[in-house]
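Collaborator request log, item 7. Partner lab (contact: R.S.) asked for a structural prediction of Membrane-bound dehydrogenase domain protein to inform their binding assays.
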Amino acid sequence: MPHRLPRRAALGALVAALPAATVVWTGTPMPGVAAMPGLEAVVFADSAMLTNPTDLDVDARGRVWVLEGFNYRTAMHPENPVRPEGDRILILEDTTGDGRADKETVFYQGRDVDAALGIAVLGGKVIVSAYEHVFVFTDADGDDRPEKKEVLYTLSPEESDHGVHAFTYGPDGRLYFNVGNASKVLKDPRGNVIVDRAGNRVTSEGTPYRQGMVLRAEPDGSGVEVLAHNFRNPYEVAVDAYGTLWQSDNDDDGNRAVRINYVMEHGNFGFTDEMTGAGWSAHRTNVEPEIPKRHWHQNDPGVVPNLLYTGAGAPSGIMVYEGALLPAPLRGAMIHADAGASVVRAYPVRRDGAGYAARSVDVLKSTTDAMFRPVDVAAAPDGSLFVADWYDPGVGGHDVGDLSHGRVIRLAPRGARYRVTPPDLSTAAGAVAALASPNHAARQLAHAKLASLGAAAEPQLAGVWRTAPDPRRRARALWLLAALPGDAGARWIGAALADTNPDLRITALRAARRYDRDPLAVAAKLVRDPSPQVRREVALALRGERSVEAERLWVALALQHDGRDRWYLEALGIGADEQWDRFFPAWRHAAGDGWNTPAGRDVVWRARTDSALPLLAALIRDPRTPAAERLRYFRAFDFQRRSDARQRTLLSLLDGADGTTTTLVLAALDTGGVAADARLRAALDRALDATRGTQEYVELVRKYDVRDPARADELLQLALATPESSEGVEAARVVLRRSGVAPFRALVEGDDPDRAVAALTVVGRAGGSAADAYVEEVALDRARPLALRLAAARMWAPGWGGSVRLLKVAQEGKLPDDMKATVADLLRTSWRPQVRDAAIKLFGAPALTTADGRTLPPLEALAVRTGDAARGRVAFQRTCATCHSTTRGAAPVFGPGLSAIGGKLAKPALYTAVLHPSSGIAFGYEGTVLRLRDGSQAVGIVASETADEIALRVGPGITTKYRKSEIASRETLDRSLMPEGLARSLTEQQLVDVVEYLASLGSGHD
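Returned to partner:
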């Protein structure tokens, strides 16, 4: 049987051929999946009822609602089978009490909910997040058929997992949700961009929000607030009884930087540069040495710290468990499904200064079943957990390998029968009892009932507040008591402010803000609270408060900073947002000569005001300041507004500066208005001499438009010495802009063949219309040596326009015979489908043979073979390491890092990724074509983008920058930049060994 089966058929056959112990849909316990001690995992529903669950929820009656994703990525994968009727919203029910679903109801089916990513069941309303739409289905009569479907919000029309995710109901009665960084804008049902309560348009364009966001709204969708931003792809947000928010966030694939966050209100979480939007891999001052911290800009002022790093994975649904059925480590903890790591974890949290610390506990994980892909977790009314298992050989990259299976798993103590009694909401007492449920749907119904009763429910709620041993139950009661009108609500807030539990004092302050009580009056009572967490919350409450009292309170809080608590510092920064010009001088006056302490230096570093500039300069000049701290203070200048004071302060630092300081000043300065400054010119010469041969050198030449002939020759030598590096290619681009191809032509036509190839290579990588024309000229000049012509062809073929030109030359029979084999391989693996198809027609389709000339056997036969990982590592280093790193903590080379790929992809998916890389492309690694105004094109992966320029990763270790003024248009490719002919460079056994090596890399988490 030939290897090139249709991809879906090949994987379907492969899954069917896996060992029986791997695919088990019934029985207790489940082979290949292990629960933590004391818990038992059983299959509640299997592929007889559902396939490909993407999200689930459990209603107050204990029924499990599931979204299916059979029609996942149909636009990206037209070869996949499609369910014409659309995907389904299912209700699964156990009517016999045996712990397995025996009744299935289709609540809704349609193409408009294909592979929807979020569901929240809130009484008679069901909120479904389906890419460009958030739908609200209404089932008023309770017959499990919606009478009405309405649009709550619209978003960017992009089919991406980085879109809008599930909604949840908070203890304050509001809706909470989040969006990934593909949701560029939030609109109302009529298509109008929503303006949030702060007066900002809810977009990710940096005014002020960037990337993914966490949001809150009233139950009808009004009153939208952006609570935090600058995430990559948070899948869900969880809200606990105190109103504290928690979530996970996915890294750029392969960087072991998946993180868990406490979502500090109004925080910036650092996926991209706050000021410019530059990507995390872009060069910056004071860059973090560790990739996970660098990934989230943890050294930048204004970035909230991360709670926990969990390594590699594909983090999905998350919740806070507030029940009593499960063991003690899980109570009050986040519980999180990580599909990439094939694990459900808990994160018990403890207080740590103004923030938190957490540890990781495995709750349910794969032992031998590599297809286990938990994507969501929800608590049932009895306190057990339900887990949605996507079940697939891989996850991520917008791909799916199996459309036949899926399951829902129940997790509970061994022998715990599934029994649910629907809540009794006919009385206040019954509603108060339901308010204690571990199930959020039951709590929502109870909250709504008690809120409607108002003062009539006060006695029952007061009883909970006064006598409940669980502070979370007391917090839920407090939210409702604080909502009572007039003095009644104020009295309950006052009582909570005096409670001994800091979480309840925090809840009281949040409730006062929720119900429009005077926040400053409440804050004044807590400004010297012994708990830094309470004081953190006071700082957050000051954001946007313009009174003199707010200034006084902020200064009092700032004077209590200990200089060690980054959580506290960032809360101060959020509280002072847009008021630094008032708050900072008041603090400076109060601090007096004591400003130069660890705590004071923190405040100076975090401040955003001209008043802080002289103090930053003083810290940089101080010989006692360690070198690392000096970098920290220089980085702070990047977050100050562009003002004359900023320029003057930076220029003043040039006096008597050493080479390093001079370079840092020049990197931070704005160039406008300083070109004629003799002091600056002298400093620039010193900095160029100190940085010769580095990326900083090229950046300075570009930034200050240096045109000294001696510097031009230095750039040329740098380009020749490092033609495969970013600095070499950027140096060549500067030379090309200044002098054209003449300096490179002279080298190509010179006597040194190595320098000729280097010159041709770097000019080809630099690109541009003149460079492209010269590369074409060399490639077709039969009088030149073959090695030089082939080097030119390799530079010419990857170009978007160059591949078309090279194909035309071949079609017209103008290609020299000695180049045909190489050119055929280049064109048959082109990124451009039309070129690839035409090349196959012209040269013939290459059999997918290995280096030893053998045709590969079927995928299902390959996947059950066992290779030698040690030999595979050697073959990988020879074939793949140019573009992919398998070293933990290494920066990206070109494609995603693979240090934990074995935990993310099972062998079937690994073979597919190696042999058919376009079947699933990791988000953020899509190819991009830039068409430049000079008529040339550039192809690569967007590494960073700001308002002014795009940094394009054009090859292993090579990033080039293009000003947006140079770009005529851009296009995202639907094909991977990884060539599909990899197998031809390996023998069959080497391919098996490489996959064995990849499968051995990491468990997917640390």
